Amino acid sequence: MIYDPLYIQFLYHFNIDRDYFECHEVMEELWMEENRSPLYQGLLQVAVGLYHARNNNTGGAIKLFSQALSKLELYPDHKLGIDMQLLLRESREYVIQLQQHEPTGPPFKYYDLNIVVHDDLLAAHVKAYTVVTHD
């Protein structure tokens, strides 16, 4: 399969440098190029959900993760060379933890998610992008 360079950049920013704002920028461009595909929008929303969680915007994180789940559940596992089922499970768990967080208690213990890449060619492209961006 041939992967769009913007998708490769998205995975780099999501899994490597954890720049979820840049994930949004890159994926929004691809989403618009692909006629506002719900698949790309769902991936974008997971990244924005993490951005909100990192910045202690629990309500925004829950909203974005919930919207992402409703879109990504429509797609089979290994769509776009990634482990969609694992991403869905981990995103659901993230929402549960966010919902259980007490606003008056200690801050939500933020953590990153990974998008597991199953396609060796895609993984090689992400790795090559990493090398190019850091040389």
Can you tell me the number of structural domains? 1
Q: Mind telling me the CATH superfamily name?
A: TTHA0068-like
How many strand segments? 0
Spell out the helices and strands N to C: HHHHHH
Q: What is the first-to-last residue Cα distance?
A: 27 Å
Top CATH class: Mainly Alpha
**How does the overall form come out from the CA principal axes?**
globular
Q: What about the largest sheet? A: none
Q: Could you tell me the CATH topology label.
A: Hyaluronidase domain-like
Share of helix, binned: 55-70%
> What is the average of the pLDDT values?
93
Indicate the structural class. Answer: mainly alpha
> Using only CA atoms, what is the Rg?
15 Å
Number of helices: 6
How much of the sequence lies in strands comes to: under 5%
CATH architecture: Orthogonal Bundle
Quaternary state, please? single chain
Sequence stretches where pLDDT stays below 50 over 5 or more residues: none
Q: What distinguishing features does this structure have?
A:
mainly alpha; Hyaluronidase domain-like; 6 helices
